[in-house]
Amino acid sequence: MPGDSFPFVVASLAAAILILLTRRSGHHKTLSVVLAGLVVFTTVAIFAFYSWKTGIFNLGTLIAILIGAAFGSFAARFIASLYSSEFGKRDRPVAPWRTTGYG
User: Fold this and answer.
1) Which among 39, 37, 43, 45 has a CA at the least distance from the CA of 65?
2) Which member of 38, 68, 74, 84 lies 3.0 to 4.6 Å from 8 by CB, making a disulfide possible if both were Cys?
3) Are 20 and 72 spatial neighbours (Cβ–Cβ below 8 Å)?
């Protein structure tokens, strides 16, 4: 009986790609929508082939897909936040009186 690691990895990669495609800005929104559609179609085709080839698509596989998608979404958002324009920006001081020379 095959494990559920393959659906987990495919779901997490698909979710990461979709998150990163939707975060793109600029005038290439149509290209992002088309690529997102291709990612969804390819992912569904991979899962259909997997279930047809192994003959096993049960509740465990569905849970692995859901957890993989959540993991991929979180990882993509975290990595994208590292490259955002606000990364490394200093926050205002918590105690402003310490920076004004009163103590």
Assistant:
1) 43
2) 68
3) no
Is residue 102 pLDDT above 60, yes or no?
no
Please, are residues 77 and 87 in contact by the beta-carbon 8 Å criterion? no
**93, part of any domain:** no
**61 occurs within a structural domain:** yes
**Residue among 3, 10, 94 nearest 56 (CA):** 3
Model-level pTM? Answer: 0.67
Domain count within the chain: 1
Conformational region of residue 57, where left means phi above 0, alpha means psi within -120 to 50, and beta covers everything else? beta
Lowest pLDDT segment from 4-8, 76-80, 92-96: 92-96
74-83: average pLDDT? 84
Domain limits at 70? 17-82
Taking the C-alpha atoms of residue 9 and residue 5, their distance in angstroms, rounded to an integer, is 6
Residues 6 or more apart whose CB falls under 8 angstroms from that of 29 comprise: none
